[in-house]
């Protein structure tokens, strides 16, 4: 039916990525949330804070990922009070795993946990559908990730600097947005290391252009490039 | 008239036992959509074959390190062989999250066993029995652990190799295989396995089978581990890759006899 998009569940098509570098982690995501074919939110924030030092990239069902992250934030808060020090990334990832695994028949959300703690430094954990938990040097998820397997197999290197890692994240999400209809909008990144957390924002029109994409201009009538005649017979 | 026809269609829908899965479109039991009870399941991240053979000093297990997500080879460094206590090795194919949970259950079992501090320790036979009970009871509740397990161990000079799967089928043998290994490796085992093989002979046999699986199993990845368990204990090798062979004459111009064919 044509009105399917009115009732379709909110799903974050999404591209999410988390990368370790020497000193911390960089998390990245696009900003599109769709209801069927309609873009319900073109500037969503899919990188959610769980604690001061651990963040979560969410993909799949918007509702499921939000409720999982809310529960984990709630449990972690109490855990930190009891522990008397910041939570570790591993404990956070395991809480995410427990919710995903024990509710595997109802939930539809793929998550990437990233953060910094004093024991392990920066670490990234992937928790895909089903509740498997794997610690990885980098992780990708969401529908847009299909387009990144080949790219990252070639481009990811051990021991990158913070700037190299962030550039790689921005490039990756931008490439996925170019090809995945369910990903779009802006690229948000979050850098986490011993010094703290930095959020960055790369608007859609500032991202690099890829194959068959054209430079943006205000209007046909305005001069944009060296072409003199905008209209042809 | 229209309203009545629509109502009938809804009733038909309700009576249908199977519908399209909301995400994949594939066949899905209707009860799974609306019932609060856990029914069956779908595997998401899966491991493929595990092979096991008895040899002179104990048992050898082999598996690759792939975690597939449907048809995507998503994870390539998944540990599918784990030591359990001092006397056993466990290998698993199937859903990785369920295997991770099984390992947690077993680690707890071993911990409680050690806490008795009575000089006794659970051997492979006992662990196999525990796993069988675990898998079978879950199957009876229609909520299986979606795995096929290979369990190998040595205790008091007795070598042990067995398997148990998600429906509770279990047995012991001199050589076992899961998944594709059942079809591709077991015939080779039947031909070439013999009592009291040396370590080198055992590894060569396993590698021969792993190579066939690499050629013929779509979900195989070229990164494998071989694990050994003897009276002394368990060791799991570092991950490594094996050479594949493509230089056969017949591969060079396969369509010469019939242009346009493959």
Automatic annotation (TrEMBL), chain A:
Single GO cellular component term: proteasome core complex, beta-subunit complex
Catalytic center residues: 14 (nucleophile)
What is one process in the GO biological process aspect for this record?
A: proteolysis involved in protein catabolic process
The cross-references to InterPro entries, in alphabetical order and at most eight, read: Ntn_hydrolases_N (IPR029055), Pept_T1A_subB (IPR000243), Proteasome_bsu_CS (IPR016050), Proteasome_sua/b (IPR001353), Proteasome_suB-type (IPR023333)
**What name has this protein been given in UniProt?**
Proteasome subunit beta
List UniProt keywords, sorted A-Z. Answer: Cytoplasm, Hydrolase, Nucleus, Protease, Proteasome, Threonine protease, Zymogen
Q: What is its main location?
A: cytoplasm
UniProt KW Cytoplasm keyword: yes
Q: Where in the cell is it found?
A: Cytoplasm; Nucleus
Oligomeric form and interacting partners: Component of the proteasome complex.
Taxonomic source organism: Picea sitchensis
UniProtKB/TrEMBL annotation, chain B:
Q: Which SUPFAM superfamilies match?
A: N-terminal nucleophile aminohydrolases (Ntn hydrolases)
**Compartment(s) of residence:** Cytoplasm; Nucleus
Which InterPro entries does the entry mention? Ntn_hydrolases_N, Proteasome_alpha, Proteasome_beta4, Proteasome_bsu_CS, Proteasome_sua/b, Proteasome_suB-type
Tell me the domain of life: Eukaryota
Recorded hits in Pfam families, A to Z, give: Proteasome
What is an annotated GO biological process for this record, any one? proteolysis involved in protein catabolic process
Cite the record's Basic and acidic residues compositional bias ranges: 1-15
Region of interest: Disordered: 1-22
Q: Name one GO cellular component term.
A: nucleus
Which UniProt keywords are present, listed alphabetically? Answer: Cytoplasm, Nucleus, Proteasome
The record describes the protein's role as: Non-catalytic component of the proteasome.
What family is this protein classified in? Belongs to the peptidase T1B family.
Task: Name the chain's protein.
Answer: Proteasome subunit beta
Q: Which organism is it from?
A: Picea sitchensis
């Amino acid at each position: 039916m044509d009105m399917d998009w009115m009732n379709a569940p909110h799903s974050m098509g999404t591209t999410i990525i988390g990368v370790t570098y020497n000193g911390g982690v960089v998390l990245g995501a696009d900003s599109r949330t769709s209801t069927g074919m309609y873009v319900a939110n073109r500037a969503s924030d899919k990188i959610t804070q769980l604690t001061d030092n651990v963040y979560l990239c969410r993909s799949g069902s918007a509702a499921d990922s939000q409720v999982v992250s809310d529960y984990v934030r709630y449990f972690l808060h109490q855990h930190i009070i009891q522990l008397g020090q910041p939570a570790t990334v591993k404990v956070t990832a395991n809480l995410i795993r427990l919710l995903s695994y024990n509710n595997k028949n109802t939930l539809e959300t793929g998550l990437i946990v990233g953060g910094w703690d004093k024991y392990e430094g920066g670490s990234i954990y992937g928790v895909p559908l089903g509740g498997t938990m794997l610690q990885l040097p980098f992780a990708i998820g969401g529908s847009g990730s299909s387009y990144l397997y080949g790219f990252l197999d070639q481009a990811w290197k051990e021991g990158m600097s913070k700037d190299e890692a962030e550039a790689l994240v921005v490039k990756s999400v931008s490439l996925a947005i170019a090809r995945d209809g369910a990903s779009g909008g802006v690229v948000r990144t979050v850098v986490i290391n011993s010094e703290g957390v930095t959020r960055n924002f790369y608007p859609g029109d500032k991202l690099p252009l890829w194959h068959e994409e054209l430079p943006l201009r205000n209007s046909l009538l305005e001069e944009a490039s060296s072409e003199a005649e905008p209209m042809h017979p | 008239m229209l309203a009545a026809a629509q109502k009938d269609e809804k009733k038909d829908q309700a009576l249908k036992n199977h519908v399209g899965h909301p995400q994949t479109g594939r066949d899905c039991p209707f009860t799974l959509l609306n019932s609060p009870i856990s029914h069956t399941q779908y595997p998401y991240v899966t491991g493929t074959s595990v092979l096991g053979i008895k040899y002179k000093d104990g048992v050898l297990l082999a598996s690759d390190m792939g975690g597939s997500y449907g048809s995507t080879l998503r994870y390539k460094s998944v540990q599918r062989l784990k030591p359990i206590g001092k006397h056993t090795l466990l290998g698993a194919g199937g859903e990785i999250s369920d295997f991770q949970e099984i390992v947690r259950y077993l680690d707890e079992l071993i911990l409680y066993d050690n806490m008795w501090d009575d000089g006794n320790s659970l051997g492979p036979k006992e662990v196999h029995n525990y796993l069988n009970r675990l898998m079978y009871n879950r199957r009876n509740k229609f909520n299986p652990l979606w795995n096929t397990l290979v369990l190998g161990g040595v205790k008091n000079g007795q070598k042990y190799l067995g398997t148990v799967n998600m429906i509770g089928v279990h047995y012991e043998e001199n050589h076992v295989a899961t998944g594709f290994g059942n079809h591709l490796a077991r015939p080779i085992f039947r031909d070439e396995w013999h009592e009291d093989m040396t370590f080198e002979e055992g590894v060569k046999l396993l590698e021969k089978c792993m190579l066939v699986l690499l050629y013929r199993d779509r979900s195989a990845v070229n990164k494998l581990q071989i694990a050994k368990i003897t009276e002394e204990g368990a060791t799991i090798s570092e991950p490594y890759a094996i050479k594949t062979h493509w230089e056969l004459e017949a591969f060079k111009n396969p369509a010469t006899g019939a242009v346009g064919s493959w």
